[in-house]
Amino acid sequence: MDVSEFDLIDSCFAPLSKDYEEAYGLKNDAALISEHPDSSTVVTMDTLIAGVHFFNSDPADDIARKCLRVNLSDLAAMGAKPTAYTLSMAYSDDLNAPWVKSFVRGLDADQQEFSIRLIGGDTVKTHGPLTITITCFGSVPRHRCLKRNTATPGQDIWVSGTLGDSAAGLQILKGEVSFDNQELRDVLVHRYQVPMPRIGLGICLLNDNISNTAMDVSDGLLADLSHITKASKVGATVLEQKLPYSNALKALFSKNETLKMVELAVTGGDDYELLFTADKLYRKKINDLARKLSLKISCIGSINSDKGVSLIEENGNHIHLSKMGWKHF
Amino acid sequence: MDVSEFDLIDSCFAPLSKDYEEAYGLKNDAALISEHPDSSTVVTMDTLIAGVHFFNSDPADDIARKCLRVNLSDLAAMGAKPTAYTLSMAYSDDLNAPWVKSFVRGLDADQQEFSIRLIGGDTVKTHGPLTITITCFGSVPRHRCLKRNTATPGQDIWVSGTLGDSAAGLQILKGEVSFDNQELRDVLVHRYQVPMPRIGLGICLLNDNISNTAMDVSDGLLADLSHITKASKVGATVLEQKLPYSNALKALFSKNETLKMVELAVTGGDDYELLFTADKLYRKKINDLARKLSLKISCIGSINSDKGVSLIEENGNHIHLSKMGWKHF
């Protein structure tokens, strides 16, 4: 290991805090957040572990960006504008300078992309796997945010982007499926390695009063939708034919593998798309927003006064995913 | 393992957030901090790992409290009043319910003691050692805090409590030294396992304008003092005969082991006492404060315009700790 803790903080991480005066160049015991008096600070925290949440062999800059982005996705689900983050890295003896440089390059790239700054953290040695914890901060109008317990019967259910790509990418990386089309293969793998938090959408949903209810899809569409229905004490119906699939995912599965594709889309997880509900009168507004953000946003079903979440085929039949080995329900 | 992730968050951790409305019972993607408009939020983050920062065999409630308290000590060093924290726990398959209950009991006890609340976090499985990261939040007057780069020549150097106890406790636990006096042995071990953050002192130093410059002693007195002198571009002299030793530490060492005791006190680390500088005119105020807080506060030396940190014997001789295998300088 050719990176001392001194180097790690002073040479590698401190430059990432340079535009944030109250981080004191990471030389103090802590940093200050001086939030605008009309705002609240949103706080979220996620830990990612080598061999669990990413592969040791993944590019270091992609690992850095994934660690940031799963946190940024939580901020998006609250309708927050990202502002800053702290990072704790538990690393083992085999950490080397090129890896760290690539890791810092990944953080730096996403700092630019999402206008955030590193303001503090910790570095420690571990005899276990590389373990990265990020606490991410965002800003919302004072005391306001998107929640999970505010869905009401009659509302539409919407989801951003496409589903199942990340889960397919993971299956490809694990060698569980193969995909001859190198270009489309890379699209799916990239969706797993570097998810895209839907920050702009979350901010617009909250600030334009389009929705009160959102979360990001990390456990899988139906599992996450069930978090909303349980918290809101409502039910939900999802229409299979409305689910958004990427061309890459459609190309991966043959015609007689449609059910496999559906399963991946609704249970695969790691999508980091925004799932939200909205009154029907906002349909035009949401479609306008999709155009403005150049982001596909699909109406995939509706909230009802039942319990639980149903997935329904075009012909009206229920799809019973439990039979397909899906364990969340 | 008989604790599912569901139980861990909903049954064990959620009750710790009950008095903090904007944590949403840990059911949302994130929590809100709505800081008073006249205040700034202080953020600090520390990771502790089994086998590195605590022993696997340590009582779970003590582990919980140590994880919180090393963070609270950072807040004390900023002069902040603690308010809330997020916790991420990476745990392995051998986690069991009694351990978790004890861990939660430890958190709960310190929540009461320091008036803080759990507001969010993460739980993940690891194939490595138990790894606990806490991000802790405090409150300071807007844009104000104690720093490291504001010491000036002529100022006194002060330290709270006693030094070396925690390092001695660690040596006892590792079997490197033995101590027949069970009661005093327990005092030293407890100082290692459950440090005492000097919250009240930090708040008074900042709010009463007694000091601008403080940090907590975690790497060892001289190493931490050198962080202050480097950041402030000054030097420091520490008088050996002024160093504060506990009765337990004095009992551990025989008369001809004084140098060993000194070494432990100035290089041992993990003291979590507050080290600060103040103008001479505040001596009475600081002694009054010590009485008010029922806390020993010792003037141990002074800041000068040289470079580096010197440790001086009563006869005026320099003590060269480098010869004693001390590697920080």
Q: List low-pLDDT spans of chain A.
A: 323-329
What is the end-to-end distance of chain A? 46 Å
Count of discrete alpha- or pi-helical segments spanning 4 or more residues of chain A: 10
Question: If you compute it from the alpha carbons, what radius of gyration of chain A comes out, rounded to the nearest whole angstrom?
Answer: 21 Å
What is the subunit organization of this protein? homodimer
Task: Specify the structural class of chain A.
Answer: alpha+beta
CATH architectural category of the largest domain in chain A: Alpha-Beta Complex
The most extensive contact between chains is:
A-B, 60 and 60 residues
Along the chain, the helix and strand elements of chain A come as: HEEHEHEEEHHHEHEHHEHEE
CATH superfamily of the largest domain in chain A: PurM-like C-terminal domain
Mean pLDDT of chain A, to the nearest integer, reads: 93
- Range of helix content of chain A: 25-40%
Write the layout of secondary structure elements.
2 copies of one chain form a homodimer.
Chain A: H1 5-13, E1 31-33, E2 39-49, H2 60-78, E3 81-91, H3 97-114, E4 117-125, E5 131-141, E6 156-160, H4 165-173, H5 182-193, H6 199-207, E7 213-216, H7 221-232, E8 235-239, H8 247-252, H9 258-267, E9 274-278, H10 283-293, E10 297-304, E11 308-312
Parallel strand pairs in A: 3-4, 8-11
Antiparallel strand pairs in A: 2-5, 3-5, 6-9, 6-10, 7-9, 8-10
Binding site for Mg(2+) 5 (chains A, B): 219
Catalytic activity (chains A, B): thiamine phosphate + ATP = thiamine diphosphate + ADP
GO molecular function (chains A, B): thiamine-phosphate kinase activity
